[in-house]
Design goal:
Layout (H helix, E strand, L loop, with lengths): L1 H22 L26 H12 L3 H32 L3 H16 L1 H13 L14 E3 L7 E4 L5 H10 L20 H15 L3 E3 L3 H8 L39 E9 L5 E6 L18 E2 L8 E2 L3 E3 L1
Parallel strand pairs: 4-7
Antiparallel strand pairs: 1-2, 2-8, 3-8, 4-5, 5-6
Helix pairs in contact: 1-2, 2-3, 3-4, 3-5
Length: 320
């Protein structure tokens, strides 16, 4: 009986950790300098209620079709409650907002949530069923974190690749690299996707036991989770990038930092650019982006993979 109770408590503890995966919101930061519109938009973070936690625990203990169906029904209901609040907020803003931009932003959020409902529900279910979902899952090990809901061997880097890390790669290739300790912790930008892929290949060769690559857009979204409206990050604050750990209290769904703002991030997902030219999707927004452009769910942002940009960096995925 004691062993059974211990197992049940372990499952319930894992279900509690799942709250972070479901809500996928950044941790509150009491020192955050909230953006100027934060007082006018929703700040509530959906939390797992006791019934949802019970269903998560039951499903993880016995992943039967019946338990899955019951949990999915609950996940859908929770999602629909959040969507209903957003719709109510939109109607309120239509009547009270003094700036039309606030209405447009909320309308875009409502439209995205409506269009992505089924995808979001399935991603939540995939996180709940991931065997890596356990206490400590959001604590980086060797600088990497599991991407819950993705393939079992997929982990993503805790932070974007820094100047110091990228310079080590350049030096290994025999290139002259100026030393500048003052920007060592800043994200490596002005790096084309092709050069970012070369960096990943170099990491793979150095490791000898794991493969490194850029994340797909879908993997990036799973790692990031939903961006809370009052999250604190480098967007609309200054005119340049900041150190990757400047907003380290703002965590993504998987526990990574700097996934919103500061610099866009390359993905391995191709997109059709102007005239059908092959472009690449970028995610997360940058220091010079509108805040709404930083949202995880925002899609369609792309860049020429052969060029480097002053507001585009990258992070890597490790398969091991």
């Amino acid at each position: 009986m004691e062993n059974m109770n211990a197992q049940i408590m372990k499952i319930l503890a894992t279900a509690a950790i799942a709250a972070s995966a479901f809500a996928a919101f950044a941790a509150p930061n009491p020192e955050a300098k909230m953006h100027r519109l934060s007082a006018t938009i929703e700040k509530e973070r959906p939390k797992l209620d006791s019934e949802t936690m019970r269903l998560v625990a039951a499903y993880r203990k016995n992943p039967s079709e019946g338990n899955r169906a019951a949990l999915k029904k609950r996940v859908e209901a929770n999602y629909d409650k959040v969507l209903a609040r957003k719709r109510a907020k939109l109607e309120d803003l239509k009547k009270t907002a003094k700036e039309a931009s606030k209405v447009r932003e909320m309308q875009e959020i409502v439209d995205e949530m409506t269009a992505n409902r089924n995808l979001s529900v399935e991603r939540t279910m995939s996180r709940f069923s991931d065997p890596r979902l356990r206490p400590g899952a959001r604590t980086p090990k060797d600088g990497y974190l599991p991407v819950l809901g993705a393939a079992q061997n997929v982990c993503i880097s805790y932070a974007p690749v820094t100047n110091a890390e990228y310079r080590a790669f350049l030096k290994s290739a025999g290139k002259s690299v100026p030393e500048n300790a003052s920007d060592a912790r800043y994200p490596a930008v002005n790096v084309s996707r092709e050069d970012a892929e070369a960096y990943c290949k170099w990491l793979s060769q150095k490791d000898g036991g794991a493969a490194y690559r850029l994340p797909t857009a879908a993997e990036w979204e799973l790692a990031a989770g939903h961006m809370p409206k009052d999250a604190d990050f480098n967007c609309g604050i200054g005119d340049k990038t900041s150190p990757v750990d400047a907003y380290a209290k703002t965590l993504s769904a998987c526990g990574a930092i700097d996934m919103w703002g500061n610099c866009w991030e390359w993905t391995s997902t191709d997109a059709a650019g102007p005239g059908g030219e092959k472009f690449a999707e970028v995610k997360g927004g940058a220091f010079d982006s509108a805040r709404t452009e930083c949202r995880t769910e925002r899609r369609g942002e792309m860049r020429n993979p052969a060029k480097g940009y002053g507001n585009v960096g990258f992070r890597v995925v490790r398969e091991k």
